[in-house]
Amino acid sequence: MDNYVQLLDESFDLAEQALGHDELGSLFFENFFSNYPETKIYFKGTDIAYFGGKKLNIIFVFLKDIIEHPNFAEGHITMEVGRHQMYGLSDREYYFGLVNCLSITLKNVLGSSWSSLYDEAWNDTSMAFKSIVNEAFETYI
Ligand code: HEM
To answer: Is the distance from the beta carbon of residue 80 to the nearest atom of ligand 1 less than 6 Å?
Structure first.
């Protein structure tokens, strides 16, 4: 796990270089909305073409924190799960879908540059994220 942050960063940077920051954000949300079209309504006030890349960066930093600052990340993600209740988000499946969608989007953009090391870093980080979300839902929601 020592090099996970480096692997996550590398895969994310490569995808940004390939597509551009805003385009990667838009593609990520496009993929997410095609899996969960019912969530579009939550973002009706958000200009995804403009904010998509920024929002994606925020989510990515939360995920990296799981590796770099696990205690902080646990508290922070738990707090976001609680705070997101105000947007009407009471189904943990959306969080799982969101993190899966991110690694799949990067994998698709990278194509043959995707590696089994990226796979491992993303799978383990996603699993840790899901376990924090599960705990948050079971404890607070
Ligand atoms: C890793 C998981 C997530 C993190 C770290 C996260 C983080 C955040 C943060 C920091 C904000 C407020 C800042 C801002 O204005 O951009 C926000 C807003 C919001 N989030 Fe999340 N979020 C996560 C998952 C989700 C999921 C799964 C959904 C819904 C499917 C969602 C829907 C929203 C909505 C609707 C808003 C308010 C509108 C907007 O800011 O565009 N979030 N999120």
So the answer is: yes
Query: For position 35, which CATH number holds?
Result: 1.10.490.10
Residue range of the domain that includes 97? 4-140
Number of domains in the chain: 1
pLDDT in tens, 25-45: 999 999 999 999 999 999 999
28 in Cβ contact with 101 (< 8 Å):
yes
Nearest CA to ligand 1 atom 5: 59
Is the minimum distance from the CB of 46 to ligand 1 under 6 angstroms?
Answer: yes
Distance 84 CA to ligand 1 centre (A): 7
Question: Residue 1 has what pLDDT?
Answer: 78
Taking every pair of Cα atoms in the chain, the longest distance, rounded to a whole number of angstroms, is 42
